[in-house]
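Reopening this ticket.

The earlier resolution said the output was attached, but the attachment link was broken on my side. Pasting everything inline this time so it's all in one place.
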Amino acid sequence: MDDKKQIYLAGPLFSQAERDFNVLLRDMLAEMGFSVFLPQEDGNDTESSRLEDRQRIIFENDIRGLDESDIVLAVLDGGSDVDSGTAWEMGYAYAKGMPVIGLKTDFRTFGDEGIVNLMMEMSVDALERNIEGILKLLENYL
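Inline output:
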């Protein structure tokens, strides 16, 4: 039985840059020793599956990925507003008592003092501003 901790990598996945960043993070986390559920690959979320009206399968695969994970790493980039799917995944994990770690490399902030939307910021166990910080923080979860 694999005793690796699994991370659910939540984040936007609609542009090539977003997908490439997610893969980079996944590879770094795997190198550290984590198992990683990456929705863009493991959730069957592809253009063809959307065209085939298989949203229910994507949704169920992602829920299963969340339920089987120990930690959610949420990429909160995108300006002042978090990707809506990422926000939902964070709320689901928070409601289940799962640790949620935020990564916000985007230097734009929300409001006068906040880094992201108040509800997102208050639902994370920790919030890091760069990849190095997130990797160091996640060492505590191995």
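Reporter confirms the inline version is readable. The mean pLDDT is 89. The longest strand covers residues 6-10.
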